[in-house]
Structures are given as structure tokens and as C-alpha cells.
Amino acid sequence: MKHFFKKIKIIRIVFVALFLFSSSAVISKEAPSSFADLAEKLMPSVVNISTTRVVEARSQTPLPFQFPPGSPFEDFFKEFNQQQTPQKRKSTALGSGFVISEDGIVITNNHVIQGSEGIVVRFTNKKEYEAKLIGTDPVSDLAVLKIQSKDKFKPVALGDSNKARVGEWVLAIGNPFGLGGTVTTGIISAINRDINMGRYDNFIQTDASINQGNSGGPLFNMKGEVVGINTAIFSNSGGSVGIGFAIPSSFAKKVIDQLTVYGETRRGWLGVRIQEVTKEIADSLGMKEAMGALVADVNPDSPAKKAGVQDGDVIVEFNGVKIDTMRKLPKVVGESPVGKSATFKVWRNKKTITKTIVLGRLEDTEEFKKKSESKKVEKKKDTLLKSLGAKVRNITDQDIASRKLKSDISGVIVQEIQADGALSDTPIQVGDIIIGLKNEKVKNVSDFEDKLKKLIKSGNASILLTIIDSKNRSRYVGVKIN
């Protein structure tokens, strides 16, 4: 299973999420005397997912003898070791999923199966089946599988997560740490939670215990309907601390339908760059409240341009949905049908104007394609950073898959640390990933070099790095520059 993260102080997001006892004041119907009947009914529909990936690893076998310092043979054998052919090995990842049709359609997270060469689903009755990938969407972190069998399976239904309420009981079933068929319970702690993991953040927060391996598993309501797909947790250690997040079923259903029919997603595209409407901006535009999405730029030849949208417009409503915050607009537009007319309202010159637009498809845009392909074209070329005394390279899709990291992570991987380099006296080790410099995101080696040079040129004697270590734990490290 793949880990995803977002730095909030020392807390990180880990992919995958305490049972909260109600007080005596809570109405009795909200506290079932037992979850046994419900768990027994739902267990046959939940599967454990194991995937295999082929990863490369360079042999690090030490020589059985040592040469004195300065010996010409020392450099010879060091170079020999570095030129050894990388060894390929199979890596196994674990996750969870659930069946939604009798013919074996299975839902899970994209990060559970990303980069896999083989997928096996296992039921609680110990039966195992090979599964085929039907479609995947890294943006929403969802994937659809099809079990390769003519057997009939017991499906579960996707419920209406829009009706979910804070405080309602929920039950999670999954495969944490490879312990299949694990049932945990809790309540819905919050809804519509935005944790800055992507443009479509709209998570259900729960305190039901969710851990590594729970990713892709279902979050049930007391009717036995899936209201969420367990995806991430906040954690210091990688284990559950009672703050987990699930993708709402109502949002997931639209993605699942598209993946099942087309094998890919078809999201609406407006073609604007937007920003938040602050109180000061709202006052300056004559708005009664700070709401909507301020159009900072309109893409040429975009649907928005053709509809007459202008820089400085504030989109306050789209297809009848009020845009109360900036981040709501991409969600509403993304869920709207491609190629069909939509109506929206903008605030311009202290009045509301209604417009009509035919949405394009996000996945067809050059910007989307470039972003999707950016990691695939990166080469594993080491770059020596003399100021740090270390060699680094760009992170690749293969690294992300083998380390079970979030698909949109960026940064550089430390390949070598020189004995007299700045990193030699720090906790940073070979294999660690540098994802931030002075609290700014590191995109790639080139970006890291540029940022580093600017800091050194400005007179900084020390820098702050954000890293992910070999156990996928994120931390801050202060480094004195040589």
C-alpha cells in the first residue's frame, strides 16, 4: 500500500485512518448493542488485495577485505561496485477493496494497485482470484478491478454519502498490516473535509481505526451501505490515532461509473485560473460577503474564453450550486458532464451576470497531459550538489510505486553522501527523499539546485530540509552549508 503525506507541523498523512464510546446522554438507537450481525453480513463482500511489482535494487555487498586509505585499489573496487548491474526483485503490497457487482467488479484505491504487474484478491473464505485492472484515476485515487472468474459474488451497495451526518456510527472492514477481515467501528467525525491532498478534496473524517493496508476498503453506515472508501490518516507513527479519511461514496460513484464504462475519467474543464476571494477583495468588488472563485486568468481557446468570462470575474454559482469557497468550483465543474451546456453566474461590475458554457474535457488539455507525463520522462541521472556534498536524482513513478507513496509527490532522492559533505553530520541517509527546502516544495533536481543556489547567494549559512526517510516518515532536518 502506498503512503501519501501532507506536512502539518510534524504530522504527516499516511495512506491506507478509536472506537468512540457514546456517553449516557446519547440516544440509545445511536449505540448498537452489537455490530456482529452487520459485520457477518458484510464480510463476504470485502477483499484483501495483494499486488506484485518488479523493482530494481543495486547490490551493496561489501568486499571481504579493506584497502589502506589512498590505495589505488580502493578507488578501483569502489568504481566496480557502483557499476554492478541493478538486480530486479519482486515487491508485494497489500490493500483492501470491496465487491459492487455479482460478476466481480471490485473498488479500491489507485495507490494500492499503481505500478503493479499482478493483482490477486482474497476473500474471507480463503478463496483467491486474479483480477484485471479496468480503469484507474490517480486524481481521485480510485481504481476499478474485475475478478477473472465466472463465479457469482456477493456485492454491497454504494450509499448516499450526502445524507451522512456527523456523529453517525460507521464500520470499517479491511486488511490492516495484512490482517485480513479486520472490523473496526467509530463515528463520522466530520464531513466535507479538505486536507489539501488534491483539487477534489471532500473527505469524510472518521475515528474508526484505519491503518496501513486498510486503503481501498469500505466504510459502512448502519444500513450496510458503503458511504466512504478509506484512503488516508493523520499520523506521527504510521498507525491509527483516530483521525482517518474516506472518499465519499457519492463522489466516488461518478468516477467509478466512468472508469467502468470508459476505462478512464471524463471531467469537465472550464479553463480558468482561480484564487480565493478574501474579505478585502470582496469589499473592493462591492460584494456583501467573501465567497466564490475569483478568475485570475482565462486560458486562450478555453470554454470560459468562448463563454465571455473575463479576468476579475467572480464565479458565484455553477449549475445551480452556490460556490461558497474557491475550492468548491473545481469539484462542481469536474463532476459536470463534458460537451453539454451548463449555466453559471459571475459577479462583475457590482452585479450578477448569468452565462452559458459548453464544458471541455480536463484530460484532453495540454496542461493535464504534461503533468501526467512529467514523472514518466524523468531519467535516473545522479547530480552532484557540492554545497551539500551529496548526489541526488529525480523521483520516478517506479520509486513512488515501490515506496508506496502518493502519486503526485515530487522531490529528489539522495543517492550518495560524501564523507566530508554537509549531509554527513545529519540524520539524512542514502535513499531518503528531500521534498522541501525552507518549507517550499521541491519539484525536481533542477528546481532544488536553483532554490539552493539562491539561499546560498543570499548569505544563508544553514538551511531547513523536509525529508521522507526509508520508513516513509517525514521530518525536518537543519543542515549547515559547506
Could you walk me through the main structural features you see in this protein, from its secondary elements to its overall organization?
Helices cover 17% and strands 35% of the residues. With 482 residues, the protein is an alpha+beta fold. The chain has 3 domains: 1-267, Thrombin, subunit H (Beta Barrel), CATH 2.40.10; 271-358, Pdz3 Domain (Roll); 374-480, Pdz3 Domain (Roll). The strands form 5 sheets. Strands 22, 23, 24, 25, 26, 27 and 28 form a 7-stranded antiparallel sheet that branches. A 6-stranded antiparallel beta barrel has the order 8-9-10-13-12-11. A hairpin with a 2-residue loop joins strand 19 (341-348) and strand 20 (351-358). It starts with 11 loop residues before the first strand and ends with a strand. Residues 1-13, 17-29 and 375-379 have low confidence and may be disordered.
In short:
The protein has 482 residues and is an alpha+beta fold. The chain is 17% helix and 35% strand. It has three domains: 267 residues, Thrombin, subunit H (Beta Barrel), CATH 2.40.10.120; 88 residues, Pdz3 Domain (Roll), CATH 2.30.42; 107 residues, PDZ domain (Pdz3 Domain), CATH 2.30.42.10.
Which descriptors would you attach to this protein?
disordered N terminus; 28 strands; alpha+beta; Thrombin, subunit H; six-stranded antiparallel barrel; single chain; Pdz3 Domain; 17% helix; globular; 482 residues; seven-stranded antiparallel sheet; 3 domains
